[in-house]
Each structure stands twice: as C-alpha cells, then as structure tokens.
Amino acid sequence: MVDPVMTVADATRLAQQGGQALQRGDAREARRALQPIAAAGLANAQIWMMLGEACRMEGDLYGQEQAADAVLEHDSNALRALVWKADCRRAAGDRRGAASWYGAALRLAENASPLPPSLTPLMQSAQASANALDAEFGVALDAGLAQRGFPVDRRSPALARALAVMRGTETAQSELQKPSSFFFPDLPQRRFYEREEFSWAPSVEAATDAIRSELRAALADPALFKPYLTHDTGRPRIDFGGMHDNPEWSALHLVEKGEPVTELASRFPKTLEALEQAPLCRISVRSPSVMFSLLQPGATIAPHHGMINARLICHLPLIIPGEGALRVAGEARQWTEGELMIFDDSVEHEAWNNADRDRIVLIFDIWRPELSDADRKGVAALFETVDTYL
C-alpha cells in the first residue's frame, strides 16, 4: 500500500540522501533514508538495489534477500540480485536453492556481451560458490546412491554415464532428446511410440467412456482445474511463452509428485483403476503424475523439452472438439478420442487447440520400455537422493 503522506518529491529526496550515504560507506544512514520509501510502496528497482546493498554492508541477510526479491520482481534478469538471492539461500542452508540461483546468474552472465567490469568480481565469487556447492553435492550424491544400493561398483555402465553427464564430466550425445534435468544415454531416438507396442494399452483405452464420465462430473466444478504451470518463488523465473499462472493451459491432478491426491481419489475410481496395469514411472517426488490436461480454445503450448528422458508421456484423448495437434520434433499428430498417443517429451514438442471448445486429455507417465529394471531402480535411487538433499 502506498503511504498517502509521502509524495514522489519526498521519495526522490530520500533516494538522493540514501545514494549519497552509500557512496560514503554509511549503510545505516542509507537504510534510514531508503526504508521509508519501500514502506510507502514507492521504491523502484534502483531504490531496492541500493537498499539491498546497504543491508549487505550491514550483514542483514534477511533484508538483503527481501531487497533481492523486490528487484527480481521488477527485473528477473538483474544479475546482482540473482547472486544476492543465491548468497542468502546458501547462508540459510538451502543448498539446492542456492545452486539454482547461482546457475541462473552464471548462465545470464555467460550470454551477456560484454559483462560490465563492475560485475566481474561478483560473478567470480558466484562461480566459486557454485563450484563449492557442486562439490558438496557430488559427495552427497555418491553417499546417497551407496545407501540405496548403488555404490560405484554396482552401477550399470549406462547409469554411470548418466551420472557423468549430470555431473558435467561427460557431454550428452543425442540427436533429439534434450531433457532439461536428466539425460540417460543410449536410449532410442524416437518421437512417438505406437499404442500397439504396449500390451496394457487396450485395457486403458477400453475404459475411455468410464473415465470421460468421471471427468464430466468434475467439469461441473471448474475450480478444480488450476493453471498447469505456476511460478515457484523459491526458484528463478523461467519464461514459458506466457503460460505461467495462465488458465489457458490448466490441469486437474489425480496423482501429483508421486502421491495420489487423497481428496480426489473417491471421485475417479474408474480412472485410477484403469491405470493399474500401466508401468507408471515412479521417481521420488517427481512421478508418477496423473492428470486431466485442459487446453482452452485458441491456446498454444510453446515448444519445450521435458525434464527426464527415462520416461514416456501418454495422452488418452477424452474431449477433442476439433482441429488441434501435438507436434514432436516436426512430426504432428492429431488426437483421436479413446486412442492413446505416446511420446518422448524430452524431445522438443508443442501443442495447440484451434477448436472452439476446450480440449481435454488424460496424461500419465510410464517408464521407457528399453530401460532395465535395475536402471529404473537406479534412476529412482538417484532422484530420491537429489530430492532429499537440502
């Protein structure tokens, strides 16, 4: 809320005082001048940056992180604020969070041409901190895998190579698969898999009418559907073609982050029963995921890559009102109600609905059939370790 007493002229005067105090190295005086501007709701990114610097000089990590958050609300690519956020997360013991913020800052700096000399020491410090966190993570990863039955001498060659790619000691070699999080090597480079390849597929397809009936009952309560992508304020903002917090692409999760949504299970018994025969991908708090995906008329999902190439994504089309399609690496296929569409989402893909009504498909993920049982367990153990690492 803006303080009705403070005028823009007052804020300008205080900002000048705060800037002058910072130049003198007087952090306390700078905060005394700048904090009222923030409290009045009149602070812009520059004022928040100055306030953050004053907090940093005084060792006030809480205030520094608040300022960094405010700057990033104005400009998600503000390098100094990204590094501050990382530093504060690291000091708070949030190593995974800190690594994500350092990574975002370093990637941005790498693409900046040229990087201002004033930021060079900051980015050198960020790189050193990121390297230290990466070393700590490597030790924890090996220990966690060993505890879960996968010490170095019990990892398959493929799993060992996957870990090397993850750790950056080996480069992923892949024509199509470009997963954003984890690459498992030597898997077939395929866009789509055919439904006839899976013995469990007919039983799922046979349940289409029952699943659609449960879905239609849920559609009477549209509040059940939430935007599929929501911004996690604890991580750097990622642009996704305007789809973050956008109801044009929404979802109703029955199983989310590997766990059934308890309050919904009784409303979708036939749906969940139909998937019991499918080899659902079970990876820590990441999968399986089972959801109804709704794409509004005229909506498009921008080209993107999924996170993990050890799984496949299945669409069971339920309500297909007209022209729309899924394109995977240049090959487009239209949905047909009741016929599974199965694809590798680590390959670049996009979708659109050009019909005049909502398109709804049931989405779930399965293990890639080429992945051995031992390697499935290894991948699961890997992400159990990652997801319990703080």
UniProtKB/TrEMBL annotation:
Keyword Oxidoreductase: yes
Molecular functions (GO terms): dioxygenase activity
Organism superkingdom: Bacteria
CC per GO annotation: membrane
Stored InterPro entries: Asp/Arg/Pro-Hydrxlase, Asp/Asn_beta-hydroxylase, IPNS-like_sf, TPR-like_helical_dom_sf
Keywords (A to Z) from UniProt: Dioxygenase, Oxidoreductase
Domain Aspartyl/asparaginy/proline hydroxylase: from-to ranges: 206-369
Similarity comment: family membership: Belongs to the aspartyl/asparaginyl beta-hydroxylase family.
Name listed for the protein in its UniProt record: Aspartyl/asparaginyl beta-hydroxylase, cupin superfamily
Organism annotation: Sphingopyxis terrae subsp. ummariensis
